[in-house]
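Figure 6 in text form: structure in, sequence out.
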């Protein structure tokens, strides 16, 4: 299993646990908010690099 697949499976598991444990809107806020906060915490150069890598992989 690839690294990205492991991350996706882990995120899905956390999301399902949060849906059971918390109200749906709080779980949605966590699932959307954590990656957004992580992205905003990057330097502008790191964001550019991340966008460039993502675009390259989409073109495969």
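Output sequence:
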């Amino acid at each position: 299993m690839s690294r990205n697949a492991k991350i996706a499976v882990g995120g899905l598991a956390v999301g399902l646990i949060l849906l059971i444990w918390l109200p749906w809107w709080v779980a949605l806020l966590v699932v959307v908010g954590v990656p957004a906060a992580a992205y905003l915490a990057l330097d502008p150069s790191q964001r550019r690099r991340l966008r460039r890598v993502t675009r390259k992989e989409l073109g495969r």
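Caption detail: The chain has a mean pLDDT of 83.
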